[in-house]
Amino acid sequence: MNIRRFRALHAAGATYAEIARDCGVDWRTVRKYLAEDAPSVPPVAPARAGTQPKVITPFVGVIEAWLRNDITLKGSVVHERLVAEHGFTGHYQRVKMFLAEARPRIAAELAEADENPLTGLHRRFEVVPGAQAQVDWGDEGDLLAHVGISNVYSFHMTLSYSRDPFTCFTTSMDLATFWDCHRRAFAHFGGVPGGVVYDRTKTVIRRHVAPGVAVPLHPEAAAFAEHYGFTIDVLAAYRPTGKGRVERQVNIVRDHVVAGRCFDSIAELDGAFEAWLPIRRAQVHRTHGQVIAVRAETDRAALGPLPDQPYLVTDKHLRRVGKDCLVSFEASFY
Fold this sequence. Notes:
The chain is α/β, with parallel strands linked by helices. The chain has eleven helices and seven strands.
């Protein structure tokens, strides 16, 4: 209802009836708001917020009990359990809105009652020069799809003491490519670190085992490590902070080397990293507070020597000969 229009039409000489017809209201309403002591705005109905009972209210105690047992419980799981176990008929959004209010409140209560306030913290570890490197893969997607290469991967090795990085790009993550990237990294650094930290990848371990059980190494991984003189350090399961140095390097290279650029070959990707590397090495690392290249001099000087001959890794495949005297390999018969 536009009261300003009432006044404009009335000032133009329109009658109450004409104004009422034009604005779609009763003529008595027009008269009321054109009176000298009339209100300047239409009446507002009282807010209904809080006047209706919430569907979630009978289940608040149940939800809060679940949250106190596991503060990370997902809203979809809470809604699913309420429907299945307690006959809840409300929408998932009702649960989501309640959790947005209840989760921070209960988390604060649990933090106040926690006898060990250091829960969730971890101790940062440092290593001596040349003692450790960390390795990880990055999936760069379809960077070269326009030239017929469907997938591109980045191999990363970072010296733990100095955070001196090495990166190369490949089209495969198979056994031979993985260890060839190691040879290139060792040549780049001019030596071999005392140990290398890995995830539980199938190119390093033979199979997954239970916690506390010795991890069986892949035969080629064990032979390669023995030839180059380093130890293999396989992270325990669910240890996301075990090799944060190299995982951070994956994102840094992706942001500073790959993002916003177009490439036509693996060689161009490797060249882009080589061109950016001096910029990275000239920076002061925020953790150890030194220029990466300066600290890397000490790190590289402490590396072990490279062997006289490289260790060449090749893929080995055991195949059964069929009655037709053919063997199957990569979806083809020979």
